[in-house]
Amino acid sequence: MIGKCHSQVYAVEKASPLSALEASSIMTNNILVSIKAFVYGITLGVGTIYILFFNGALLGALTALVYLYSDPVKYWSLILPHGVIELTAIFIAGAAGLMIGRSLLIPKEHSRLHSLVKGSKSALSMIWGIILMLIVAGIIEGFFTPSKVSEIGKLIFAATTGILLIACLAIPYIRKTTNVDNPS
Questions:
Q1: DSSP structure class, residue 20
Q2: Chain segment 125-155, per-residue pLDDT in tens
Q3: Contact predicate 23/141, CB 8 Å
Q4: CB atoms within 10 A of CB 34
Q5: Which of 24, 49, 97, 113 could make an S-S bridge to 38, C-beta 3.0–4.6 Å?
Q6: How many angstroms separate the CA atoms of 98 and 9, rounded?
């Protein structure tokens, strides 16, 4: 499995006429992983934690192999441009799944069913944003990652993407906090 992942990571480096097909395949896989991380929250979060742990362990093992036997800068230049968005989306999907699990484990003043419905609605509101993030990550992985841009250029792109992502995720929180502090 790890060998297959390693070859796929480095295969992405070579642009091909099938980039659109590869991008859609990657997007579909990542959307399915995210949906599983979300839906498995119904297992009191155990399934969500398993999905996150398994995928994290796979990425960690692959990264360790690269550090032992290959070029880490090249590896990160192939992972980070899309991975910044992709991994954030998967973690958010996991958080949404854990919200569902928490609503079942700790229903507070409501029945478990009412708490599940309420928690699921709140968690479900994040799904469209997650899917949009994964589509953007898939497009980057399918078209930008295999481009002729230098490794340093790809890492700068990844850093810029990360800064923009933090800004996009922080702005609604900042607005909400500002509105609470200064109700007009």
A1: H
A2: 888 899 999 999 988 988 898 899 999 999 9
A3: yes
A4: 26
A5: 97
A6: 29
